[in-house]
């Protein structure tokens, strides 16, 4: 494997703005698929960073996400001991081109220039060595002024992806990895056309992974999409720091056209090249694709959690909160969460978006939230509720605290399950430990803190 170092620092730019609606009920608007451990102990977001370990000249990453996901992103980076990442908050959604642009301005402001490796936060890659080999080749192409995209070598006639058609080999490529000039970007095809593309051997799935120097990208953007360039430049110029986050200026950013990097730059530039990537890639876009990449039994079932099955074949069954029993079924998806259960034919798994649209139209919370809700200090989960009471399980991370509060319409009973709690109640401050409890009366000023080194678990 080639080991030459790129000529300038390499910055991962992780795009984490999606909602993952096709993986409902596990993925929801405020807890989307990239933050969920769908394929192991780490989330897809965390796996995106882990596959970069050992990469030459790697700098701290830039993450672009929306405001609602900021604490999940920060916490998952902290668990990987990535404390110096820069998290840019998009005030409104404007597609990938503006998001990458503010990241490019951030890189220029801090490094003068750098190679940007743009990565979606919700993809799965099995062959890490093949991925790193392609990235190394991409770094050489990027430093020579090319805008690199990585084309996935297709394994089937897929109609759900756009395609990239390779052109002539890139001249003077400093790598044994094949690099081609891009001949064309092709829209999602029908089945017959997709099969033609696969048979031709010169078409690749458009992965949404890119590599270029920040300055070169901005140069091309200014030529082909000046509106995005100027709006994002102004928005980044007026940025502010908020704890661990970078808040770009909302009014300036709103004036940016909403466009993908493909339409804004890659389809218009004459500097685009494609590197074929055969690395066991999946965008984990549906329950069917998750079944495809998961470890299957000898009856082609994927069973996660407390699942009992008999005479089942080709099913994806995921139990999160209770035992799920399945009998005599074929090619179904069954996904159980605390407040919803999905049952669908595997071949119709993509259509779960219609259920999500109905939930949103009816303004049902199941489209947006799980029972477990994440907060900067930890999380809370609704256990039971009625007209006169509500029961929650609260987790407070070590060293964290809730704000000082006062409620005029409810009293609270707190029971410590594990850990240590420091309680402020009006003028009192006291400690509680496992199996101890206290009462917060109406109108009392109160605060909950975790002074310990393990999570505080509490029933409210």
Shape: globular
Low-confidence stretches: none
Number of strands: 28
CA distance, first residue to last residue: 56 Å
Question: Approximately how much beta-strand content do the residues carry?
Answer: 25-35%
Structural Rg? 24 Å
Please identify the structural class as seen in this structure.
alpha/beta
- What spatial order of strands do you see in the largest sheet? 20-21-22-28-23-26
* Helical coverage, percent range: 10-25%
Q: Given the structure, what is the number of helices?
A: 11
Mean pLDDT: 92
Largest sheet: 6 strands, antiparallel
Short characterization:
This protein has 460 residues and is α/β, with parallel strands linked by helices. 24% of the residues lie in helices and 31% in strands.
């Amino acid at each position: 494997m080639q080991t030459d170092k790129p000529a300038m620092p390499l910055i991962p730019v992780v795009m984490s703005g999606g909602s993952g609606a096709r993986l409902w009920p596990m993925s929801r608007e405020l807890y989307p698929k990239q933050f969920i451990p769908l394929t192991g102990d780490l989330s897809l977001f965390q796996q995106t960073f882990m596959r970069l370990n050992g990469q030459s000249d790697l700098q701290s990453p830039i993450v672009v996400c929306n405001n609602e996901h900021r604490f999940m992103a920060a916490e998952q980076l902290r668990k990987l001991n990535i404390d110096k990442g820069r998290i840019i908050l998009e005030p409104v959604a404007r597609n990938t081109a503006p998001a990458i642009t503010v990241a490019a301005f951030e890189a220029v402001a801090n490094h003068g220039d750098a190679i940007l490796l743009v990565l979606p936060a919700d993809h799965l890659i099995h062959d890490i060595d093949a991925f790193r080999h392609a990235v190394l080749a991409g770094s050489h192409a990027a430093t020579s002024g090319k805008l690199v995209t990585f084309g996935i070598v297709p394994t089937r006639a897929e109609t759900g992806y756009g395609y990239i058609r390779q052109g002539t080999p890139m001249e003077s490529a400093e790598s044994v990895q094949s690099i081609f000039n891009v001949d064309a970007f092709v829209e999602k095809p029908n089945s017959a056309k997709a099969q033609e593309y696969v048979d031709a051997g010169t078409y690749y799935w458009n992965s949404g992974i890119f590599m270029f120097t920040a300055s070169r990208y901005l140069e091309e953007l200014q030529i082909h999409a000046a509106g995005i360039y100027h709006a994002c430049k102004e928005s980044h110029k007026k940025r502010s720091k908020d704890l661990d986050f970078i808040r770009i200026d909302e009014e300036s950013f709103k004036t940016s056209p909403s466009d993908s990097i493909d339409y804004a730059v890659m389809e218009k530039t004459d500097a685009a090249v494609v590197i074929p990537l055969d690395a066991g890639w999946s965008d984990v876009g549906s329950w069917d694709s998750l079944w495809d990449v998961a470890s299957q039994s000898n009856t082609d079932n994927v069973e996660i959690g407390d699942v009992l099955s008999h005479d089942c074949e080709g099913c994806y069954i995921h139990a999160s909160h209770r035992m799920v029993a399945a009998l005599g079924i074929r090619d179904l998806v069954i996904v159980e969460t605390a407040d919803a259960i999905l049952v669908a034919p595997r071949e119709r798994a993509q259509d779960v978006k219609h259920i999500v649209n109905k939930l949103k139209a009816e303004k049902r919370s199941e489209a947006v939230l799980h029972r477990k809700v994440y907060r900067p200090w930890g999380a809370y989960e609704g256990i039971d509720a009625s007209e006169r009471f509500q029961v929650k399980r609260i987790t407070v991370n070590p060293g964290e605290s809730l704000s000082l509060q006062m409620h005029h319409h409810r009293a609270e009973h707190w029971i410590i399950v594990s850990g240590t709690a420091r309680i402020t109640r009006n003028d009192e401050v006291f400690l509680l430990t496992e199996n101890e409890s206290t009462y917060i009366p109406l109108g009392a000023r109160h605060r909950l803190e975790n002074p310990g080194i393990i999570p505080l678990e509490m029933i409210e």
